[in-house]
Amino acid sequence: MTSADVHDVRDPELPGRLLVVERDALVPLLRGRPAADFAVPTVACPGWSVRDVLAHCSAALMRVVEGRFEEGVFSPECNDRDIAERAEWSDARVVDELERGMTEAGPVIAGAGGALDGVALGEWVHAGDVREVLGAPGAYAGDGLPDALRLLTWLTRERRLVPVHADVDDVDEPLRLGDQAAPRPPARYIGDAATLVRLYAGRSVDGAGFELVGVEAKELNIFG
Hints:
Number of helices: 9
Oligomer: single chain
Structural class: alpha+beta
Shape: globular
Distance between the termini: 32 Å
Strand order of the largest sheet: 2-1-3-4
Largest sheet: 4 strands, mixed
Number of strands: 4
């Protein structure tokens, strides 16, 4: 079986594995941070502080765990309500809920047939948003990166995004993302993995050294 074949088969355990790996890195980092760090504004989510991003993440995961998917779930309005509901919580309680969600959501996502796989990738990206503004290592990278790239490849194919051949630093074989059967020729990316993740997550790539040919960055945003 080739690497391309692997990415064409959904691994139901992959999203949960990504969450657990990130949990083990992110939660200890948060436990050791002073209260002021939770109030730091994020760059990727304008108007949200670090605490707001964490509250959004914990709420989204608990919705998955508890199966609460009412109309409008995960919309901007729903996200704002989830954050507001946690406004009086201590920072530690938000982190506690996040830890529980990252622990318990995996089996639920695995059993959802792919419908919730994007939640796990979104949580991992938000962890990168937090790491970035706190100056912590591993933003959009770290130990979860190999699983994140596999999940990203799967999701871009499932969602029939623009075909892209990505030559990624420190990855042995090129990644083939998006709809490889699309009539347009594949675009080409050359650069590091974290920048590739930033492009697909709609995050800033200012100052990053990479090459992108045959597609506009805005066409890659998997969350757009």
